Task: inverse folding
């Protein structure tokens, strides 16, 4: 009986999730009225002939012309039919092949007569669909805890955006300070949501903050001693202000989550241990903390390593295909990601030491 | 000495202090993972099919990350099998989404860097974007799988007679604890690595709609949300595999 009930629940859940995801995508597919930019729907596509082309590095690609017909779906010219020309290559590095049914952002020109050029494709529907999958999975698997997780992400996103705003208003002059304060606030809010207000939470918070500060300090010392040889700040992407402080701020925020993750694990396990066996000395607690940390640090460093390194893939590939050496392609694209990974690694290892030590010193057996 | 070498040495020394022999193994896994990642890029540059190369490399990367961790044999075998299943799920989700959103290649924000580079290299960058998204999720999936499998293995060791249904419930409890913080690892990694991009958006007055539809932002967001989906699905997959194995073990013991 009970089994039947649960399986029914699951089918209902699955149906709800699927409906929710498609509803989210459907809404975004039809929200053109919310945009200021002109949106255009492709109704019919004529593909032209392909032209073969070879660049100076003997890379072979094909260039295609296409013309499509469709209608403007929002704004002053809603309902107007229009035909637009487009060209794309096989590699789609900077161009797109458009197909029937897609919605595009276009720039309208009214002189001499109404015509248009494509700016970009509208991407909100797939993103909404994916976010809907993620949110419903969080709820289905975590149940109520999903609310905490999602609210923590939301609060942190808002805080992050406020910090970006402050940084911009300061023209990037105080980027490290702004993001250091943000880091403290981030930790406080996140740990409060994960652990609640308790002594355990304070121990974790101090371990996280000390480990992060020590990591930045070590990084600056190493940078000072080596004169930052092999660090190519000019290869940083999307830089609109002084790159070095920006890089430090990036690493600082990037490593924070992993360090909190680890410190929470270690402190929580040690608190349970101390509760079960109050006779353990501070040194014994420290040693078991180190044993726990030893096993999580490796996989955790790999988490950040893959996040930092994978995003350099496309640009590195392009460098290699443009006749650059492996070494140069690495230096100009992957070296900063590598540096971030190593600094994060240092932070993660320091957290093992500090959270075990703080837990050993401050957690007493009778407390929860 | 370059700064990267110096940081590497600092990390190695710290890892040895904390982990001894395990510290050296963890450091080595980082180095080998880097080698495989770079080799993957080189293979794609030699026009091997990007998605297939990535999937093969992913399985190798997962096995190194998981088998070189200090988890027990049973835990790491289960974690590896579970993470490969999750990897397949991720590939199934990511391919249609990337073609739908067309986030391959470079955005307008990259124009300055692309100056002087030929972008017509004959490699489909949509596939490269799929490879990027798959690779960036690997670490998170491996970590979650190891954590859950080790936790469950510990429970089995302590309560030999535990029923597989009970184990499944325990796995969900452990999973819930892990996810809460693993999500933070992912999102802070995302905030950190795209800080410069956010400052760019703010400085150039991008509207919410502009950001949401921006190619570079969409690509990064998709990668991180797919990792999140991977981590979340790792919980039931690992737990289910572990309790399935336990059930089989109990049956074998009964027969004997």
Result:
């Amino acid at each position: 009986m009970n089994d039947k009930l649960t399986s029914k629940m699951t089918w209902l859940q699955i149906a709800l999730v699927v409906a929710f995801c498609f509803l989210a995508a459907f809404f975004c597919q039809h929200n053109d009225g919310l945009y200021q930019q002109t949106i255009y729907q492709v109704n019919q596509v004529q593909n032209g002939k392909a032209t073969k082309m070879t660049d100076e590095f003997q890379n072979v690609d094909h260039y295609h012309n296409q013309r499509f017909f469709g209608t403007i779906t929002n704004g002053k010219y809603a309902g107007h039919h229009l035909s637009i020309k487009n060209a794309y290559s096989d590699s789609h590095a900077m161009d797109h092949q458009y197909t029937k049914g897609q919605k595009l952002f276009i720039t309208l020109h009214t002189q001499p007569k109404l015509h248009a050029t494509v700016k970009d494709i509208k991407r909100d529907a797939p993103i909404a669909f994916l976010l809907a999958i993620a949110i419903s999975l969080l709820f289905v698997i975590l149940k109520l805890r999903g609310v905490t997780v999602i609210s923590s992400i939301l609060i942190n996103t808002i805080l992050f955006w406020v910090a970006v705003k402050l940084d911009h208003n300061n023209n990037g002059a105080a980027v490290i300070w702004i993001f250091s304060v943000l880091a403290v606030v981030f930790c406080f809010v996140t740990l409060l949501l994960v652990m609640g207000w308790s002594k355990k939470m304070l121990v974790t918070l101090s371990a996280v903050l000390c480990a992060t500060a020590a990591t930045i300090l070590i990084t600056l010392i190493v940078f000072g001693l080596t004169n930052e040889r092999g660090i190519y700040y000019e290869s940083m992407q999307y830089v609109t202000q002084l790159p070095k402080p920006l890089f430090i701020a990036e690493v600082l925020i990037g490593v924070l989550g992993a360090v909190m993750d680890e410190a929470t694990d270690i402190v929580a396990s040690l608190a349970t241990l101390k509760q079960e066996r109050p006779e353990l000395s501070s040194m014994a607690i420290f040693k078991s903390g180190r044993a726990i940390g030893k096993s999580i640090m490796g996989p955790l460093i790999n988490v950040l390593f893959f996040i930092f390194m994978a995003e350099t893939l496309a640009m590195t590939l392009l460098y290699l295909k443009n006749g650059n050496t492996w070494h140069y392609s690495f230096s100009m694209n992957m070296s900063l990601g590598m540096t971030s990974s190593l600094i994060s690694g240092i932070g993660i290892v320091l957290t093992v030491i500090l959270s075990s030590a703080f837990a050993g010193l401050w957690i007493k057996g009778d407390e929860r | 000495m370059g700064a990267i070498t110096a940081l590497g040495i600092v990390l190695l020394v710290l890892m040895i202090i904390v982990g001894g022999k395990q510290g050296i193994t963890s450091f080595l896994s980082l180095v080998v993972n880097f080698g495989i990642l770079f080799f993957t890029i080189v293979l794609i540059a030699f026009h091997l099919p990007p998605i297939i190369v990535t999937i093969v490399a992913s399985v190798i990367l997962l096995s190194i990350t998981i088998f070189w961790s200090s988890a027990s044999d049973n835990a790491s075998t289960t974690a590896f099998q579970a993470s490969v299943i999750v990897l397949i799920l991720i590939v199934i989700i990511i391919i249609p989404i990337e073609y739908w959103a067309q986030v391959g290649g470079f955005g307008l924000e990259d124009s300055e860097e692309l100056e002087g580079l030929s972008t017509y290299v004959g490699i489909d960058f949509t596939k490269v974007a799929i490879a990027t998204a798959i690779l960036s999720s690997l670490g998170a999936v491996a970590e979650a799988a190891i954590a859950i499998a080790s936790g469950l293995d510990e429970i089995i060791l302590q309560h030999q007679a535990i029923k597989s249904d009970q184990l499944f419930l325990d796995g969900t409890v452990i999973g819930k604890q892990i996810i809460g913080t693993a999500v933070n690892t992912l999102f802070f990694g995302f905030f950190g690595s795209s800080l410069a991009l956010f400052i760019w958006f703010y400085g150039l007055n991008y509207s919410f709609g502009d950001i949401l539809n921006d190619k570079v932002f969409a690509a990064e967001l998709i990668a991180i949300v797919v990792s999140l989906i991977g981590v979340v699905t790792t919980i039931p997959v690992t737990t289910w595999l572990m309790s399935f194995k336990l059930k089989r073990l109990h049956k074998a013991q009964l027969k004997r």
Remarks:
- Chain B touches chain A through 125 residues (CB under 8 Å).
- The longest helix of chain B spans residues 215-255.
- Chain B is about 85% helix and 0% strand.
- Residues 123 and 152 of chain B are 44 Å apart (CA to CA).
